[in-house]
Every structure is written in structure tokens, then in C-alpha cells.
Amino acid sequence: MKKVIVIALLLVILPVVSCAKPMEIKQGSSNDAVFITLRNNGVESDSSEVVIKNFHSGARAEMVYRIHNATGAAIRPELFIVPYADVADYSKADGAVKAPEYMFDWVQMPELTDVNPGQIKDFVVALEMPKDAKKPPKKVAFQVGVASKTNEKVQPSIGIWWLVNMR
Amino acid sequence: MKKLLIALILVLVLTFGMAMPVFALTTADVDVTATPAYVTISCNQPSYDFGVVAESANLTTTTNWATITNGSTVQTDQTISVTAATWSGGVTWTHSDTATPGVDTAALKTNRGGTWGIGDITIKNAAPLYIYENCPASTGYSFGLNLYAPTSFGDGVEKAITVRVTAAAG
Q: What is the pTM of this model?
């Protein structure tokens, strides 16, 4: 009986533990991910915004930040909310207003780990609206930025707009 | 057989019980897409060392000391900020967002390729200012740094702070 329980536990725990880490992939870029390349003192993104439609109480929206380390050294990416970013300055705001600060608590940042030179690693950023949360305006926007966490003291970064359309 | 059934039930219970937070995905009726648009910037300068600084010193680089190469295919809004409210090292310095130096309080300004004193931009930690709003696609620029040293120091340990230039579709 003990053997069975141990085997069962291993069968469950091993895949769960391995999936809990950011997934490493070999290649790929698509519209269901934001492809970021970190270079020596530079950063590039193939997407400028993430659009979420039909968001509502209890809903969860995920977007993959697929990060490629194009430098010669391991880099730990940095993902962060840009609280000051005002969508009023964005020419493609499409009626969205600056997200209220309480929405920042709905953003779930991934555990950040080093990306080895030449590797690509996925990090999932999620937005989850609690069921009992105050409803925000119909169209809101905020930014999730990305930079490389290095010892450089002048650091380029990119802010990706998250445009959220409520149901 | 009974043992196998128990093991199977255990696997199912543990899988769904433990895996849900890890495998949670976008809710079925919510649509999420990334809009393609190429945004990229890089800087030719990784850091600047102002060297030994005197109390109340006002030190500048040239206003075109660093170059931002902007290969973005869309218009961007670019802000400049410091990533912390304090300068690290020994007795830390407070970073002044109002460009007002004081006791162990320093400030930074920038100028985008012009003349110091004309169109200077305070580099803030909270609510950063634009260094280049509505920067056209594929348009780079240069900038310099201006340090306002504290009026007095708590120690002689080297201080550091990270300056970040952020580009977003504008």
C-alpha cells in the first residue's frame, strides 16, 4: 500500500513541480505571446499591446512574455507594472482610460529566473479579477514593462500596453 | 485491484488539487491577443561615473553623451526615470524628484541633445517625465546627465542608481 501511495505521489508531484517553473522552449513567436529579445544594453518586442476582450468578474487572462536572451551572459529579466503610464497619451487608446490603481493588485507576475545565453524562456503574466471586486470602467489600460536586470546603470526598457475591455 | 483504484483516485485528487493554480489559463470566454508592432531601443552607454563629487556640486555630461538607437516601427512615448527612490551604497542618498538637493539627497536632470539649462528634464522615480513624447518611428536621439550632489554627505562610500529609459507605443 505504501509503495502505491509513494508511486502515486511521484506521478503527481514530478510533473507539477516541473511545470511550475517557467517553461523553456526552443523557438517560436506568435500572436498569443509577446516575443521579447534582450540584447546588450538593448531590448526589443514584436508586440506593442495586449488586448483583452470580454473581461469580467472572476475572469483570468494570461499572456506569455517569451523572452530571448541574445547576449553572451545569463540575464534575469525584470517584469513590472508601469504605474504612471497614462493611456491618454496613447494614440491607439480607443477610448480606454488609465486603469485604477486597485487593478494593479489583479496582475500576477511570474517567478523570474535567469535566461541563459541564447535561450528562450516563457514567463506568464496574468490578470485575474476577483469575483467580489469593484468593477472598473468599461475600457481601461495599463502597462507591463520589461527590462533586463543587470548591473548596467543606464537601462533601456519597453512598456507593453494592456488594453482591457470589460464585458 | 483495490490498491490500484485507490492510487488512481489519489492521482486524480492530487492532480486537480495541486495543479489548478499552476495550469490555470485564460478563462474560456475571455479573448486575449498580442498586437504585432516592433518596438526596440538600445543605448550605447551602460553607465557613467561622475567620479569624486564635492558637496553641492553640479556636474554634467555633454547633452549628447548617450545615444538611444530607436528601431521601432511605430511612434513611441519614451520616459526617463530612476528605478529606486534611493541611491545605494553606505549611507544611502534620497533621490529628489523635485531636483532639490539636500543632506544626503541628490537629484538628476537630463537634456535631450540641447543646451543645459534650456529644456532640462528632471529624472524622477515616481511619475517620470517624457524624454521624448511622440518619438517618430526609427528616430533616435542623444541625451546627457546632470547630477545635483547633496549639500552634505553622511559618508564617502560610492553611490549608484539606475537610470531607465522606457519606450512604449505612443
A: 0.83
